[in-house]
Design a protein that fits this description.
The chain has 320 residues and is α/β, with parallel strands linked by helices. Helix content is 37%, strand content 23%.
């Protein structure tokens, strides 16, 4: 039998107070509203719960037994609600993110340790993959993606560096053997290490200099999936050919000289990633904590959240 919880609460309030007027004063409600709630409950149960006279209101036998049984049950409900209040006050629970491999490598290491230290009761799970996912269907609370991979009707907050570059590089030994390209078209004469997306596509390299955009689709002996970028880097260092990847990813090898920049003047810029999540009226506390944490760290970056009505285009290289 489905009984309205509000009617049960009204019944117990009247039973405890011993009358409708006193119950109304203690509950901050009206006596007529409480009386109507009790009448609905009696009609649904098919029994009289109170003896009513002009001078007094007394529980019937069945009313007293019902009150005695409901009181501990309601106390358990109150305890359960206190648990929820505790979560709201101390920010605890599980937070699951779906992110591209590049974000797991280049963005999150600068955020995760300090975030977990600030919120020790949060359990964070990171799923790193470069395939498109439905956040809700996959059980994730939020994700990180670049502009052209953001799902529609999502709330997005900037996270990590706001500008990044796609870099081409090769080992000095390879370039000494095969020459150094002077223009993107020269890449067609080189052994280039390419990335294949999870969709199966191999995107051309889109290079840009002073507003002049040049798309080139070179070939090479080695093709790797976007999740095997470390193999690409190692192969380039060993002289296999020219590779393309995030500048931040290969920066340590550029600084040591293990890799040498190729066509640096043509390296394209693209916008940084976003933390995105479904538009909800009540955002889970762990996710809200991460959003606020990210926005606080990016105080020099426009921190407004925007609702994305459609995906915007940026360089396809940002997905590598």
């Amino acid at each position: 039998m489905a009984v309205d919880f509000g009617d049960i609460s009204a019944f117990l309030t009247v039973a405890k107070a011993g009358g409708f007027r006193d119950a109304a004063r203690s509950a901050g409600d009206s006596a007529s509203r409480l009386s109507e709630a009790v009448r609905r409950l009696e009609a649904q149960l098919g029994v009289r719960l109170f003896h009513r006279t002009t001078r007094s209101v007394e529980l019937t036998a069945v009313g007293r037994e019902l009150a005695d049984r409901l009181t501990p049950a309601i106390a358990e409900v109150d305890l359960a609600l206190d648990v929820v209040n505790g979560y709201r006050e101390r920010v605890a629970g599980r937070l699951k993110l779906n992110v591209p491999v590049s974000a797991a490598r280049l963005v999150l290491p600068d955020i995760v340790p300090s975030f977990l230290a600030a919120f020790p009761d949060i359990q964070l799970e990171i799923i790193a993959e470069d395939t498109f996912v439905d956040l809700v269907a996959s059980g994730c609370d939020a994700g990180i993606r670049y502009d052209e991979r953001l799902e529609q009707d999502m709330i997005a907050v900037p996270i990590g560096p706001r500008r990044q570059r796609y870099a081409l590089a090769a080992s000095p030994a390879y370039l000494n053997r095969h020459g150094r390209p002077d223009h993107p078209r020269d890449l067609l004469n080189h052994n280039c290490i390419r990335s294949r997306f999870a969709s199966g596509a191999i995107a051309p390299w889109e290079l840009e200099k002073d507003g002049d955009v040049f798309n080139v689709d070179p070939t090479g002996q080695l093709i790797v999936g976007t999740g095997a970028s470390d193999l690409m880097v190692a192969s380039a260092i060993d002289g296999v050919g020219i590779m393309g990847l995030f500048e931040d990813w290969i920066a340590p090898h550029l600084s040591t000289g293990a890799l040498e920049p190729v066509l640096e003047a043509w390296w394209p810029n693209f916008s940084g990633p976003y933390l995105y999540y479904p538009g909800r009226r009540l955002v889970p506390a762990p996710l809200r904590a991460l959003i606020d944490f990210v926005k606080a760290r990016g105080a020099t970056v426009p921190d407004q959240a925007v609702r994305l009505q459609s995906a915007t285009a940026s360089s396809s290289m940002a997905s590598a």
